[in-house]
Structures are given as structure tokens and as C-alpha cells.
Amino acid sequence: EDKVVQSPLSLVVHEGDTVTLNCSYEVTNFRSLLWYKQEKKAPTFLFMLTSSGIEKKSGRLSSILDKKELSSILNITATQTGDSAIYLCAVEPGNNRKLIWGLGTSLAVNP
Amino acid sequence: DAGVIQSPRHEVTEMGQEVTLRCKPISGHDYLFWYRQTMMRGLELLIYFNNNVPIDDSGMPEDRFSAKMPNASFSTLKIQPSEPRDSAVYFCASSLGPGEAFFGQGTRLTVV
After folding, report:
1. Does the pLDDT at position B1 exceed 70?
2. CB of A42 within 8 Å of any CB in chain B?
3. Cβ contact (<8 Å) for A98 and B48?
């Protein structure tokens, strides 16, 4: 059965810390892995990683895909209170658009 | 574009009643997804459409759930009859091809 597992489930850090969130997957016929950030409302897109684009960076956020280990990490450097959210990882199989979602990592950044 | 628009934002209904959730996708997007989110199970894909045609409805939990997309700018998710265990946040999302999907603000459904 296809599945996506994220760790840790929750994390509390102080402003300025660096955090690493993990996502591992078991999916037949992998196409892409996506990271989303969910604050109080809708998930918003962060990154998409594929076999041809295994590393992405935007400001203080960066993500790497390890196809050999079937995993990805999301790094956030110099965290701010505005980074507090649930970070969701999803994997898209190659044969359909049915994303398989992890349960998310709840990040709290304290001032 | 105003993004994906869902209505209502909140819905409280009694068990046994019919509930209809509505979604307007982003213009030009050819994929539309209905999700349900709960604390216990996270985000679950219920059904998705491509060019208004349902492609995969394997996530629809029971026959009480149905979804339609009569045209490219409108979709509904109906629950009839509703049950307390249907209480969740329901999201609609749309995308243009594979990859990034844009989510609506969700409908918080409470069935009492």
C-alpha cells in the first residue's frame, strides 16, 4: 500500500533555530514529491521535487529529494514565529493525480 | 484570479440532513480535487476530476457521498444523509496539469 510518513509529528523551537523536517514514502511509480505549509486555513504550496529537480530553495526554506532513500527533507533556517504551521508532504504517483499525503509536522516557533 | 472559492465556509447541520458543498476552481485549471481533513486521518483525497470528468472516486467513503462537475467552473460535493462522523474540513483544490494544486479556504462541516 502506498504511504507517506512524516517525522517528527510535532516540534517546538525558538526563533533563530534551524529545523529539519522529514518525509519518507513508499509509492509505486513515483512522479513527484510536494511540500505544503498549512497555517490556520488552506495548505499553500512550497516546493515540488522530481527526478529532474531534486533540490529547491526559496529564501530560508530549502528541500532535497533522496530517491535512493525514498525520502525528502525540508530545512528552515533562522526560524521566525511566522513559520509556525503544519508542514505537509505529499507524493504523486506516476500513473494518476491521486496525491498521497503524510499527516504533517506541526512546527511551533516561540519568540 | 480570486483563487479557488468554496462555500459555505461553515456548515452546521443535523444528522440525516443533506449537505451540499460548492467549489469554483481557478479559471483554466483542468483538474479539480475534493479533500477531507481530520485530525486523525489528515488529508484524504475523496475524488478528482479532469476536464469535468470524474477520474478517481475511490476515496469517496460511502454511497452517501456524491460529487458532480457540470462545467469547468463549478463542482459540488453532496452528503446525503449526513452523519456525525462526516464532521471535518472539506477542501476543494484545482491545478493545471501535474504538480502544484491551489486549495480553497475549506468548508468546516459539523454534523450534530
Report:
1. no
2. yes
3. yes
Q: Which residue has the cell 511509480?
A: A29
CA-based radius of gyration for chain B: 13
CA-to-CA separations, A13 to A78, A85, B13, B24, B50, in angstroms, rounded = 11, 12, 39, 38, 41
Distance CA A14, CA A109 (A): 5
pLDDT value at residue B99? 75
Contact present, A100 and A90 (Cβ < 8 Å): yes
Out of B42, B45, B100, the one facing A98 most closely (by C-beta) is B45
Q: Which three cell numbers stand for residue A69?
A: 532513500
CA-nearest residue of chain B to A37? Answer: B103
Tell me whether residues B56 and A88 touch, CB distance under 8 A: no
Given a cut of 90, is residue A96 above it in pLDDT?
no
Quick check: B62 pLDDT over 90? no
Using CA atoms, how far residue B95 sits from A85, B4, B41, in Å, is 23, 10, 23
Please say whether the beta carbons of B8 and B106 come within 8 A. no
Mean pLDDT, range B57-65, rounded to an integer: 91
- Rounded to 5 degrees, φ, ψ at A15 are -50, 135
DSSP type of residue A1: -
Average pLDDT, stretch A93-100? 83
User: B103 and A43: CB-CB below 8 Å?
Assistant: yes
What kind and span of H or E run contains A87?
strand A85-93
